[in-house]
Structures are given as structure tokens and as C-alpha cells.
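Objective 1.3, modelling of assemblies. Example input:
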Amino acid sequence: MLRFFVRRLIIALCVAITVSIIGFSLLRLSGDLASVLAGENASPEDIARIAMNYGLDRPFYIQYLDWVTSALRGDLGRSLFTSEPVSELIMDRIGVTGGLAISALILALLVAVPLGVLAAVKANTWWDRAALIFSVAGQATPNFWLALIFILVFAVQLRWVPVSGSGSIAHFILPVVTLAVSIMPSTMRLTRAGMMEVLSSDYVRTARAKGLSPFKVLFKHALRNAILPVVSLAAVQLGFLLGGSVIVESIFALNGIGYLAFQSIVRVDFPVVQSILVFLSCAYIVLTLLSDLINAKLDPRVQLR
Amino acid sequence: MMSTIVTRTAVSGAAPASRSDEFDTLAPSPKALMRKRARGHVGLIIGTTIITVIVLMAVFAPLIAPYDPYAQDLSRRLIDPVWGAKGTWDNIFGTDALGRDVLSRLIYGARISLLVGFTAAVIAGIIGTALGILGGYYGGKVDAFVVYLINVKLALPVILVALSVSSISGGSIMALIILLGFLTWDRYAVVTRSMTQQMREREFIMSSKAAGASNSRILWREILPNLMNQVIIIASLDMALIILVEAALSFLGLGIRPPTPSWGLMVSEGRAVMFFKPYLIMIPGAAIFLLVIAINMAGDGIRDVTSPEGRG
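Predicted structure (C-alpha cells):
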């Protein structure tokens, strides 16, 4: 277990370093940052002055090393737009995005897992087909479109919830549901596939044969094993939701990391953009590392792979 | 509606009468079985029919579209679609806030979605399949490097990376296609890698090795053809994903730039007036939904037909 842990940790560290280089260089390599910052009518002198001001004229690796060493001390630089420290900007908003992602994940699991079990138990019936249609349709619905439809139906027509903003719990209902729908199909399919496999296994047949109630067989014996891949997918999906919240946050005007990232991208506020990119990538790396470890603990065979 | 019927018969009529009919004492060939499964697969038929209609729409856009998709007519702004209160047959899907015909923009928008989705999926497919095969076949350090690249790719938040690059590099369609290709190759790599690992140990690879085939010959002539079915299935899923991401980027204003008609951009443009004219977001959104669902249905269908055991 220790060897497995150390090996996974080293890989995660290498990936984190690479991702930080990519996140840092992305905006710098996509175009000439200084001239974009200076605007269309800027003279070459203006551009040079801006490049010097922000240290963009220095060699790339020096800029990077500089940034990483201060980042490790918790200093991510300052926003070009508000001149607040980037670390504070992120910390102020992590609650909104984290809460949004975790609630969406919980909601998705609460809907998709029972649906997947139902589809597997009633395989090849109309229940199964209905669940399949739901998952295919869910996968094909653009997130932003669903959000707008929700606003039209539930906020404007029915007036159950507010249109946008982040004042109360009610403001979070539509964003959470929109995000949850985006990960329900994959969770449902995985639960169904896992259940199908487990239900045809010998130990489930034994449990049935010795006369256990169908309920006990299903939830105490079968679901326990079928749910393992769903648990490790859940960690990955949480990382995906953190990064994917940008659309939902900007539609519902929620002041989270995604919205901050979007605003900063539009303003070419590169210290904020690069920090958020690296921050979210590292969050994903940590989550998948955790899920790997949990998986290895639950299923020792994983360590051999 | 006419074209739907025509293409549907075209699809089912494409398979010629099964050749194994002459030898009906023999078991049907795998290909004949496949054709039979394809003809009975509702999802595949519906999916390919919708795709065919949309592709035809895109190819013949200048002939079909009733108006110029860029032509603004400020005297004819925000006209309801034909089913609306003041709708007329002049503009079946109504007009937008600049007086442009929604149907014409929708027809031209199909070009963007299909072009971006298809080309980016091919780029991603080449990158991902190459990496997956190399890692799976050579193993060892090569494989470790491929796995590392996959991990790096997975850790990057796709939408945010795409938004950042697209914001600086301007709105060229070419740049967007390459960007999306480089952001979605992971699924190809994961699947082809594990399939190649399994295939490496099979007899037909062993025997061609024993016969003296070079590594490149084995990779190109033995392994790749055996992966093609899977790669096509992943490509369909990937194309659907790319179309959704392009729509999301365009919706956020950093994908396809105005006035080019892109479905995602049309939803974004309709958003300002959606409380009064909901059809302006409903119609282009429904188009994205329809295309993506058709591609997914066709992909699922291909999977069921080519490898029924892999159903799940």
C-alpha cells in the first residue's frame, strides 16, 4: 500500500508541475499578451512599457520560476483589473463554486444511482428504455440552453425561484440542477453496467438461493460492489464540475471561481486566469489521487495494476 | 418531411440483398449478420437519417436557405415564427433582433457545427489513437509517457483552457478547430491503449512477428485496422462533445464570432430578448440538441451493430 501510494504521489506531482507550466504559458503562447493588454491603437513604445511593467519581457523560464516560488508561499500575484491579491479573489469565491459542485454531485448521485439500479433490475423493459432515453437526452442537451429554459420556465413563468444572483438558497436551485443534469447520464450508465454485471454473478445467485429478500440482495450485496466504479467516477466528476461551472455561474450571475475566470479571460487579466487554471487542475489531480487511494483501499487488486 | 422519407429508404436500401442467400445451408457471414442488425436498429436508422438531413442542409445551404443569413432588415425585426401570433410563411422561424431570417441562419449554422465537430474529432482521433497504440504496443517507458500525457490532459479544465486560448488568439475557425482537437483526444488514447495491450498478446500478432513483420507493419496493417470500429464509435461521441463545447464557447462570446451564424452564438444573441421572444433561444438550442442526439444514437447504433457483445 505504501509503495502504491508513493508511486501515485510522484506521478501526481509530475502531472501537477506540467499542468502548472501549461497553465502559466497558455495565455503567453496564444498571442502577444503585452500588445493585447495595450489595446489596438497602442504605439510600440506603449507595448514595450507594458511588457516591462508586468515583467513580460523577461525570459519565459524566469517568469515561470518567479511565479511558482511565490505561488508556493501563497502569493499568486495581483489582479491587473482590481489589484486585489489573486489568492484572496480565489478564496472569496471557492465557497460558491465548491458548494455548487458538491450539491450538484450529491443531487446527481441521488437521482442517477437509483435510476441506474432500476434500469439494471428491469433490464430490457420499458423502465430500462425510459432511463436510456433520459440519459441520451441529458447527454445531448447543451448546458447553457438548459439553464436558459429553466430560467424561462421556473423563474419567469412559474416564479418559483429568482432569475439570477446569489442572495439566498433559492438562487442556487436552478444552477445546481443544471450542473447535476450534465453528469447524471454517465453516472446512470455506469451504475447500470455495474449492476448488470454484479446481478449475474455467482455470489448474488447464492444470496438469492439461500432465500434472502430481494431488497437485501439488491442493496446489501449487489449495490455495494456495483457502486465502486461510481465512487471513483464521482471524484473525477467533482473536478469536472469545478471547471465546468463557468457556464452556469456566468448565466446565473453567481460570484464563483468560474465567473471570475470568465471575467478575467475577457479582461485579459492574466495573473488571475493562470492562477485559476493551475488551481483547478491541481484540485482535479488531488481529487483523482484521493479516489485512487480510496479505490485501492476498498479493492486491493487495484494496487497490482 | 419529404427528404426524411427519401433518406430513410436510402439507408435501408443501401444494403444489397444478402449474398449468402445462394448458400442458405451455410450460416450467414458476419457482414450479412451486421447488415441485418443495422436494418433492425431503430436508433441507428433515426440517428443516421437526422444526420443525413442536416448534412444535406449544410452542403446545399445556398440553395435551400430562403434568405441571405447575413442580410439585416431593421424594418422586419423580431417577427414571430409561423406558429406565433403574428407569424407568416415569409419567415418560417421568424427573424432575430437585427431582422435576419432565423431559418436561413440555422441552415448556414449547420455548416459551422459539422465542420468544427468533424474536423476537430479527426484531429483528436489521430493524436489520441497514435498515442494509445504506441503506448499499448511498446509498453515500458513509452507507455509510462503516454499515461502521463493522458493524466496531464485530463487535469486541464477543457472549457476554461479553450476560453483562454480562444480569447487571445482571436476568432478564427481554424484556430478553434485545432484547439478543440488538442483538447479532446484523451478518450481515443485511453481506449486504443488498452485494446492494443490486449491485442499484442493475441496469436495473429505473434504469428506476423514470427513471420518477420516489422513493428511499423504490425502497427499499421494488423493493429490499426482492428481498432477502427472502436475508433469510429469514440469519434462519434467526441464529435458530439466538440459540437457542445463549440456551442458553449460561442454562447459565451469567445468561440465563433459574429456575424457568422453558429447555433451557440444564435442562442447567445437571442438571450437578450428571450423573455419576449423565447423562440430565438429555443430554435437554435433545439438544433444543437437534435444534431448531438442523432450523432450519439448513430454512434451507439454502430457499437451495437459491429460489436453486440460490447453493449452496456
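Chain A has a mean pLDDT of 86.
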